[in-house]
Amino acid sequence: MNAIFKALNDETRREILELLRQRDMTAGEIAEAFQISKPSISHHLDILKRADLVTSEKKGQFILYSLNTTIVDDILKWIINLKK
Amino acid sequence: MNAIFKALNDETRREILELLRQRDMTAGEIAEAFQISKPSISHHLDILKRADLVTSEKKGQFILYSLNTTIVDDILKWIINLKK
DNA sequence: ATAATATTTAGATATTTGTCTAAATATTTA
DNA sequence: TAAATATTTAGACAAATATCTAAATATTAT
């Protein structure tokens, strides 16, 4: 859970997840949606990937990122458990 | 959401929430459950309080902390929305 | 009133984190 | 093969964070 909550503890990364909820996007497309540098976005994507919140797939010279809803379920379970 | 995710981004604070899920506890009782100093626990409780994840009530010389499940709902909503 | 107990506040410090620029790697196009 | 494009890696730096000890505040008991 540590990596997941760490990943969620940043506004930019949460917005990336919200973007990927709509559709898969390349690293470049994601970067264009923000005012920060591409290396910084790449770093954020790495943190999201380590938390398994996103997956990536190489498509030629692009890398396509997708939301991993399986892991989202794990967070849900943790939170719901707090209410029991 | 920022303060909430920040508050959740720490193992000790998450464990405090899990303790308070069972029953209300004083600051001292909470501190005894961990190996870190009382001032550090006090700091963690402050962060949880700022995020509105816990509430506190003075009972004589003690301060009783409780889990605020209303805010837990806000996190749930954010997460659930990712899956839609 | 004084001492004891419960908790927080203050100040210091080491670690982690988000950001940047520059350079490296990989792929496609001319 | 050389140039262009997409992305990551490396290294640096300022800001944020978790922890500590010591001191302050508030309440209760002697």
UniProtKB/TrEMBL annotation, chains A, B:
For molecular function, the Gene Ontology terms on record are: DNA binding; DNA-binding transcription factor activity
Q: Does the keyword Transcription regulation apply?
A: yes
Q: Does the keyword ATP-binding apply?
A: no
Any Pfam family the entry gives: HTH_5
User: What range(s) does the HTH arsR-type domain occupy?
Assistant: 1-84
Q: Which UniProt keywords apply?
A: DNA-binding, Transcription, Transcription regulation
Q: Which InterPro entries match?
A: ArsR-like_HTH, HTH_ArsR_DNA-bd_dom, HTH_MetalResp_TranReg, SdpR-like_repress, WH-like_DNA-bd_sf, WH_DNA-bd_sf
> Superkingdom of the source?
Bacteria
The family database entries (PANTHER family) matched by this protein are listed as: TRANSCRIPTIONAL REGULATOR, ARSR FAMILY, TRANSCRIPTIONAL REPRESSOR SDPR
The record's NCBIfam families line, in alphabetical order, gives:
HTH_metalloreg, repress_SdpR
Name of the protein in question: ArsR family transcriptional regulator
Record the organism: Flavobacterium suncheonense GH29-5 = DSM 17707
